[in-house]
Design the sequence.
């Protein structure tokens, strides 16, 4: 028993070292893959590393005294399955019919060793299922391979480090360990219903990763300093080889050249990325996310260099250091040494001003939830953004009027990609968004209007049903009575497909209020494909108004079955959120379904951003081809939620053509 404890203590003692070594690579990997690092993931990953460390120490320690030691019992592998049961029965007085022998059994080495062998891989099975999302048979194989690696390490005396096996290779261990992995797999199953789903955690991390957080920027800077330091060292060796190592001025200037290379030349070549930033997918851009010029990189990092070194150099002058000892900033130090009182004051004032500006910028970034801006960034008019963030910012700047989107659509169709194909891609993009947020098949309601926006809804419904999501599509009319094309042919196609392939998709035509509310109540996701860019007016006509009200009610007040309290009744009476009369956005109910709007939330004017009565409130809007003016106004995000763009095609060439066309007009 003591051996187990001391091995775990050993693991605990060596863990900080391992954690220290893996932290930077871990952070780089996470930032590259997800863009941000949720604490939950760090907790899981580091606890997993700690567990592996414990497991290996338990299996491999203690080591024999010396390389040639022969441990007698370990020399012949034990290959008889269930040998421990026979041995146990032979050696103890255990009798199933005699309860007084049961307690002693628990203290029997055969029993508790078997128990510990099972226990050893229980956490592995849990991690494999919960975090690594392995199936039972994958867990079985991995569990077996891990235990095989334990046993072979023992059999080969740490892969030849010791001349003889120092622990017994035992098939029973293989079986008990593997069983442990499976026990862990089954045990974690029920817990997974309450544990956070890592697919959603990843999705949130990706979203948060759009921002260039202070930690991410600091890490990229640290990486750059490490790279510069390494290059500086190489140059130092070169200088030494050339017999120039003793010369102070040369080394000062080569150091500066290395910094210039890393922080100015490299960004010029890569259009705004130092090597550290490239690694973490960051980019230096102008404050409007456009490409920065070479002199801005120079200003940004030149200022930083001065901001780091000048105060120290000046201070050392002020406090009367000998200018000749302070090396590279000698001139400043010299000047400072001769104008002490003046400089003390100038220094204090500057530092105070800098401190105040730092505070102001920190408070501003905290209150406005904007990234912190460094002083050198402010002066050089540059900032660091994530590559994805730059992309999104640029997309958001390319806003097309609704009429231009229609023109763009025609250009694309003339070029050989028909509207039906665009609709197919649009609907698939919406279905993908739903699947990202509701990863396991769960009931989905698609509200489909009679225009082409509804057509996108039909495609999304089929795509989800193909992935086993039980879908209820709500439509105001029979598919054949839809007037808009290609919505009509698409809907007919989906309808036929559903019957033919027996997809889990049911279509409700103009359902009454109760049926509608029941369907929405049971949904984990709602797709709003009622009205898109073709919507006009400040009032939504029936039946769509009722659909929007039902979706909003579910979103803000939970399902009908829940919370029938006084509070809820009052909220229903007021119903103000539906009429858009509330000043602040109402709270989303905890159990609200994930609501995604196709192209634009129904009731919101894509052109002006004005919300009609009622207007659907979505968690996310997937807009097609380009952002529309109504989606980028900040006041509209209470209806749109987060907006993402589904490009559908590479629009660049068409946008250029469209630009020419617009200019001609
Ligand atoms: N751009 C692209 O590349 C692509 C565009 N695609 C998709 O097409 C969508 C545009 O389709 P669209 O032009 O058919 O219009 P849409 O939004 O379905 O609305 C028309 C319906 O709204 C109704 N309606 C109007 N006002 C109303 C009111 N006040 N109250 C009630 N109803 C009202 C109107 O009824 P009506 O006036 O005819 O009685 C008609 O039935 C676009 O948003 C995108 O999702 C993708 O498929 C492919 C790529
Ligand atoms: K919509």
Sequence:
């Amino acid at each position: 028993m003591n051996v187990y404890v001391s091995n775990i203590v050993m693991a605990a003692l060596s863990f900080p070292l391992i954690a220290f070594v893996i932290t930077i690579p871990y952070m780089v990997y996470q930032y590259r893959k997800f863009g941000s690092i949720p604490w939950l993931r760090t907790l899981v990953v580091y606890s997993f590393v700690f567990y592996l460390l414990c497991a290996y120490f338990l299996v491999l320690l203690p080591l024999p005294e010396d390389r040639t030691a022969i441990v007698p019992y370990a020399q012949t592998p034990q290959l008889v399955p269930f040998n421990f049961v026979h041995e146990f029965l032979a050696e103890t007085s255990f009798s199933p019919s005699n309860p007084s022998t049961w307690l002693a059994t628990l203290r029997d080495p055969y029993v508790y060793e078997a128990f510990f062998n099972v226990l050893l891989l229980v956490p592995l099975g849990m991690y494999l299922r919960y975090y690594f999302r392995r199936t039972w048979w994958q867990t079985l194989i991995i569990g077996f391979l891990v235990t095989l690696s334990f046993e072979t390490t023992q059999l080969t005396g740490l892969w030849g480090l010791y001349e003889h096996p120092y622990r017994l290779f035992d098939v029973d261990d293989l079986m008990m360990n593997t069983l442990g992995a499976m026990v862990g797999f089954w045990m974690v199953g029920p817990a997974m219903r309450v544990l956070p789903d890592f697919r959603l955690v990843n999705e949130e991390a990706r979203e948060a990763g759009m921002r260039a957080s202070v930690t991410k920027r600091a890490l990229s800077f640290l990486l750059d300093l490490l790279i510069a330091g390494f290059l500086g060292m190489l140059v130092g060796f070169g200088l030494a080889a050339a017999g120039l190592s003793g010369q102070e001025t040369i080394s000062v200037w080569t150091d500066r050249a290395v910094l210039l290379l890393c922080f100015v030349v490299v960004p010029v070549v890569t259009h705004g990325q130092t090597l550290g930033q490239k690694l973490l997918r960051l980019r230096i851009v102008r404050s409007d996310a456009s490409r920065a010029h070479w002199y801005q990189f120079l200003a940004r990092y030149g200022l930083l260099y001065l901001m780091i070194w000048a105060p120290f150099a000046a201070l050392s002058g002020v406090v009367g250091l000998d200018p000749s000892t302070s090396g590279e900033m000698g001139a400043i130090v010299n000047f400072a040494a001769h104008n002490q009182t003046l400089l003390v004051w100038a220094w204090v004032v500057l530092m105070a001003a800098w401190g105040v500006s730092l505070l102001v910028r920190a408070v501003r970034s905290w209150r406005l939830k904007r990234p912190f801006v460094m002083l050198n960034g402010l002066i050089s008019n540059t900032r660091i953004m994530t590559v994805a963030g730059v992309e999104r910012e640029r997309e958001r700047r390319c806003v097309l009027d609704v009429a231009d989107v229609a023109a763009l659509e025609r250009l694309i169709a003339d070029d050989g990609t028909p509207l039906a194909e665009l609709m197919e891609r649009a609907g698939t993009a919406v279905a993908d968004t739903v699947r990202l947020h509701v990863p396991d098949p769960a009931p989905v309601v698609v509200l489909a209007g009679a225009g082409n926006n509804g057509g996108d809804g039909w495609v999304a419904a089929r795509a989800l049903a193909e992935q086993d999501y039980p879908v209820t599509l709500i439509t105001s009319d029979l598919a054949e009575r839809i007037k808009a094309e290609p919505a009509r042919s698409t809907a007919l196609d989906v309808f036929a497909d559903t019957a033919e392939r027996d997809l889990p998709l049911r279509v409700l035509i103009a359902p009454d209020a109760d049926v509608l509310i029941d369907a929405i109540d049971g949904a984990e996701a709602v797709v709003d494909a009622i009205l898109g860019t073709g919507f006009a007016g400040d009032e939504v006509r029936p039946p769509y108004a009722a659909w929007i009200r039902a979706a909003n009610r579910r979103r803000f007040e939970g399902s009908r079955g829940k919370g029938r309290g006084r509070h809820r009744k009052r909220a229903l009476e007021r119903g103000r959120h539906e009429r858009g009369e509330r000043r602040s956005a109402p709270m989303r109910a905890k159990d609200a379904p994930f609501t995604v709007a196709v192209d634009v939330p129904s009731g919101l004017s894509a052109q002006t951003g004005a919300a009609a009565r009622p207007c659907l409130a979505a968690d996310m809007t997937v807009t097609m081809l380009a952002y529309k003016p109504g989606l980028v106004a900040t006041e509209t995000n209470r209806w749109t939620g987060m907006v993402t763009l589904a490009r559908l095609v590479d629009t660049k060439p068409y946008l250029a053509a469209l630009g020419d066309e617009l200019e001609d007009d």
